[in-house]
Amino acid sequence: MSDVSPLLEDVPCDLCGGTDHEVLRPARESNRSSKDLERIFRASSDVPLVDRLVRCRRCGLVFVSPRVQAGAIVDSYSAGEDPTFVSQAEARERTFGESVARIEQLTGGPGRVFDIGTAGGSFLAAARARGWHVDGCEPNRWLAAWGKSHYGIDIRPGPLTDHDLPAAAYDVVTLWDVVEHLPSPSAILDRVKTIVKPGGYLILTFPDIGSPSARYLGRFWPFLSSVHLYYFSKTTMREMLKKHGFEVVGTHAHTQRLELGYVLHRGGDVLGAPMRMLSKLANVTGAGRRHVPYRLGQTSVAARRLP
Q1: Is 262 within the bounds of a domain?
Q2: Which band of pLDDT confidence, cut at 50, 70 and 90, is reported for residue 54?
Q3: Which residue, 51, 160, 203, 287, is the most exposed by fewest CB within 10 angstroms?
Q4: What is the structure's pLDDT at 293?
Q5: Is the pLDDT of residue 258 over 80?
């Protein structure tokens, strides 16, 4: 029994409020301690999933329950440093440059954008380079400070709930690989609706548990991670957005670009020593710095705020 156990709590379905669920994957024995939470709940975490995974019998949402209490999760995200994550800033800027261009196909051009969970600010930098007025928040104070130092962007430190933002002020709100980490996606989407303009857009990405990659890889799917609390499918994501006044207008597979060595190293937590050896080999030969496309079920959704 780990000393994390007193911090665990059962949670209802965040989509429909249901408490009747089926167990998809039982909890595994773990020697986690409360000191491990900072390592688990951070942007670059790849600690394999050890908590119980369940599916709501009413709406089909897949999520972790019991899980670490929300306050402990937020505290863990806020603390610590994450140089591993920001090592990929250049590759992320390339990915996000393509993402901003796609967003402009919806908006017709630059406007005001707010990025929730912006990490080191690579998306904000890519958007600013294309003429957008950028704003964003990041719970990890070290990452927020890194973004200020590296990009000169004043990232708001702390979670969205810490900030008093003007109503209907943004043309676009984004959550890049964030929604699956939130203790309550529903609560954050409620807040998002108040800051995006009517007719404005919410853009988010998530690992799709209904994707071919997830089905084919099964327990080896790399997004089965202790840092992820929710596992949406396209259907449950559409229903979640509808619940909060958003209409899905587009869905597509989301391709990230990352350094090869980084991708192989992260895969080592799931696939073990062979991947770690390949990572070392790639780095020794110089191939590890090459930017490679990475897509294993990540999905991007664009949704319009209804009046």
Answers
A1: no
A2: very high
A3: 287
A4: 79
A5: no
CATH of the domain at 148: 3.40.50.150
In a domain, 22, yes or no: no
Average pLDDT over residues 203-232: 96
- Structural domain range at position 191: 83-252+301-305
Q: For the chain, how many structural domains are there in total?
A: 1
Q: Which are the contacts of 222, defined by CB distance < 8 A and separation ≥ 6?
A: 46, 266, 267, 269, 270, 296
Contact between 264 and 289 under an 8 Å Cβ cutoff? The reply is no
Neighbours of 1 (CB within 10 A): 8
Confidence at residue 1, expressed as pLDDT on a 0 to 100 scale: 42
Calculate mean pLDDT across residues 195-208. 98
Cα 207 to the chain's mean position, in Å? 8
Instruction: Assign 3-class secondary structure to 224-291.
Output: CECCCCEECCHHHHHHHHHHCCEEEEEEEECCEEEEHHHHHHHHHHHHCHHHHHHHHHHHHHCHHHCE
Q: To which residue do tokens 């261009």 refer? A: 101
Alpha-carbon span 234 to 184, nearest angstrom: 18
Q: Which residue has the higher pLDDT, 42 or 229?
A: 229
Chain Cα centroid distance, residue 57: 25
